[in-house]
């Protein structure tokens, strides 16, 4: 979506989505890759003119991408009820475990159009991520699940996440990812703390909105 930079633009979008909902063509509307400030602006416009505000934000969220969903969006979740529809829980396959020993020829990262993904995987940061994933494997084993299932369940355990959007290249992958639902009850505070200690990237929240 094009960057929104003026009050009139927010007003037009909110008015258009309100019309769509009032005509019965949709039940709700949300944003994608909007900043917290932009979402709050749209919400304010909706409340000012008695229109329908967005109810969710579509944002990237996985073990290695946490800042927006864990720091920026909680304020919106607790103040105005905007939840997160997160995507790429396996970080374009990086968290699947298949890149632990390089880039397999049959993988997505081996395709020419995904050269950027290959470069990301073989970079210094990419190698560090693969080491962390190997360290997470024992936790997955203890919980009786695969690494992808652990990663998806980790996303689902966040109270501000309304849903996790899955992507799979075959039915087997989809079935495996859906198995994360069975893992979710096992995501105790102790397990989450273990994962945080391994990742070492937990963002610092400005405020605990539960207090």
Concise summary:
The protein has helices spanning 7-22, 36-48, 67-80, 115-122, 124-143, 147-156, 171-178, 180-183, 189-199, and strands at residues 31-32, 56-60, 83-87, 161-165. It is α/β, with parallel strands linked by helices and 211 residues long.
Q: How would you describe this structure to a colleague?
A:
By secondary structure, this protein is an alpha/beta fold. It has a domain of 145 residues: NADP-dependent oxidoreductase domain (TIM Barrel), CATH 3.20.20. It has a 4-stranded parallel beta sheet, with helices on one face. Helix 3 links the parallel strand 2 and strand 3. Helix 2 runs parallel beside helix 3 and helix 4 packs across helix 5. The two termini are 35 Å apart. The N terminus is likely disordered.
